[in-house]
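Is zinc ion placement plausible here? Inputs below.
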Amino acid sequence: MSGSLLVDNIGELVTNGAGEGPLGIRRDAAVLVEAGRVVWVGPSAYAPAADHHVDAGGAAVLPGFVDSHAHLVFAGDRAPEFAARMAGQPYTGGGIRTTVGATRAATDEELRATVRRLRGEALRQGTTTMEIKSGYGLTVADEARSLRIAAETSTETTFLGAHVVPAEYADRPDDYVGLVCGPMLAAAAPYAKWIDVFCERGAFDVDHARAILACGQAAGLGVRLHANQLGPGPGVQLGVELDAASVDHCTHLSDADVAALADTAHSDGSGTRTVATLLPGAEFSTRSPYPDARRLLDVGVTVALATDCNPGSSYTSSMPFCVALAVREMRMTPAEAVWAATAGGARALRRDDIGVLTPGARADLVVLDAPSHLHLAYRPGVPLIRQVIRNGVPQ
Ligand SMILES: [Zn+2]
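Reply from A.M.:
I modeled the complex. Tokens:
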């Protein structure tokens, strides 16, 4: 679309910048967009003229959701495993190997179709930025093609060759770590921005995780990791040690883990350098206790919310669902949850051009079928996304 776009008659505009309350709310507002960027925010009554026009009709407008944790490159589904869990079996993470087998057997076109389907599904639910991980290939060729396909859809791509040790390396994990740090990283790095490790009992221990993440850093990738999901462990503190942008899950934290995260606070009071990304869809789908968001928020740790969309432990692409869970089950206020799903996700990706609606930001906007952001938690399960504008283009 060429020319400028004006979104006006916005009843409640969430800017995550200057304005009322933690969400920087402006009333009766308008946003002017040019060349994919927000160029003006102000009172609707004083809005400048534009080539194109969207009338929000008094509804709420928010920054597009930033889903900073998703596993979209896979084949098959694990609905029977979900049913077994709901019938009482515990979640161990072992089902990942089921998806690895299906993914290796799939064609590029099948994997691409799944990524596009899920990315489209998320977009219709207001997600304008979505991180995508590899991690179901676990061979040099399959990890490289997973990331090549992910990179067709997102610039936020993450090499997760260290998701689990594949069955063929089960009795020689050191050799697998060598493969990940050597030829697999070399093949994956051209398509990846980040490196991630599943640092958990049954996956990768702290020494292996540190070695893999350090190799990724040396190859120019940023660090993020799966930490403290299934039990207490060293993952969160390893993330802080390596200046991870985000430690994800954070379900089982010690006081020392929380303190380590709080100690990464920026001196200007703008939150922590390492973000705690909470993934309540995983606890929902594994019927596990939710992370203690309040314990993190109350000491100033920056919190993000993401879907963890994957076929095993959290097969949802819905950020509004995660917002509702965070409010109902994790005692986040609606404002905290909406911030975490937008600006928080941006921080977890070390981005300042998304998750906000201020001049200069990317023009990623969501028009709700509701007068206020409160409705995202107040009306769970209801399709409240009326319109998505991504990069200045109505979708
Ligand atoms: Zn994950």
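Short version: The mean pLDDT is 96.
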